[in-house]
Task: structure prediction
Amino acid sequence: MFRWIVARDLMLAWRRRSDVLSTLFFFVIVASLFPLGIGPETQLLRSIAPGVVWVAALLASMLSLGRVFQSDEQDGTLEQMLLTPQPVYLVVLGKVLAQWLVSEVPLVLIAPLLGVQFGLASDTLLILFVSLLIGTPILSLIGSIGAALTLGLRGGGVLIALLILPLYIPVLIFGAGAVDASISGVSPQANLYLLGAFLVVSLVFAPWATSAALRISLE
Amino acid sequence: MECVRGDRRLFRDLSFSLTPGTLLQITGPNGSGKTSLLRILCGLTSPESGEIKWHGAEIRSLAEEYSRSLTYIGHRIAVKEELSSIENLRISSGLAGCELSQNQAQQALARVGLAGRENLPARFLSEGQRRRSALARLINCTAVLWILDEVLASLDHAAVTLVESLISEHLSKGGMAIVATHQELHISSGLFHRLELEPPGSGGTARSGSPS
Result:
């Protein structure tokens, strides 16, 4: 059943490619505006790079999160999913995995390219890639709670941002911190381990909270 | 099953039970709580007070075990516009835990009169055809209890006959069905009960009786 959800969401995303591409372009453009605005000061660019790329990733993931449950709620598929003979936890996990694969993985893949614009060294680019690889699933997991809570509300998009962005702060701090550490020549290990710990915790608790929120939203 | 709901007083003191081979038709004017009742029976909404029992156990405690015995087709029929009818059918059956082969799905769609249109995205189908493709879910489904909300809406005469024959087959195999609809249902086998919900604001009780 889990694979049906993932396969279905990937198929739907493929049929609505423009949604996925718009998130990716948003990420690229936000991260590219900074070097254009600040000018060719390599030292300054290098020091703001981790924060800028990470903040752009947070904002881009907000864009795609609003859609996770929305269309399924509108056509009644979500009700069917809650009535499947499997735990709702798995349904949520499947949908979040699909959302991550579709909307976040492209960001992770293109991020090193953006890092080049900021003049980052190659080992720092690798750390940027790894930190996003560990960090973006956390964004999807936590974000799914907000998406479920604001389901069916008018102006839900803004509300998600208000609910979820504060919860993203630790991820931002340790994600950008890892890249920062690598720039200043310190080992980024501690930051990455903490991100990993966040990932495990959110993997356990977020789908559970999301399923509870979905049940409430559909009452 | 027993259920009382009090917040908007759609109905109260409502109590009924179903035995295998029984069809329960729920009628009542708009706003009398037919959909709410069905959603409560599915476990999507919780009743204000009262309980719904399946084989003697509360449905909340059964959770997934109850979902396995249940097929629900709601107002919103869960047909994805971007997917073709065959994809819709195979995916929704897969989600419900009974996987269909390409062939089985094709046959089911042929039975509901969508042969030749299996690969058309659902957004190119008419409302009636979309409803037909949702009904195809019932054909290979093994669930004992069908809960159908306004399934006959925007269906033509042939499709209504098809729904009736699907329900009759299901009942003759010992299944149960709860159907909310205003139209007359003619079934050839099984027991038939009717539950009429009263209009909102009239105190909210319900009468049940056998049809003529």
Summary: The CA atoms of residues 26 and 180 of chain B lie 5 Å apart. The interface with chain A takes residues 42-46, 63-65, 67-68, 70, 72, 74-83, 87, 91-92, 94-97 of chain B (CB under 8 Å). The longest strand of chain B covers residues 191-197. The two ends of chain B are 25 Å apart (CA to CA).
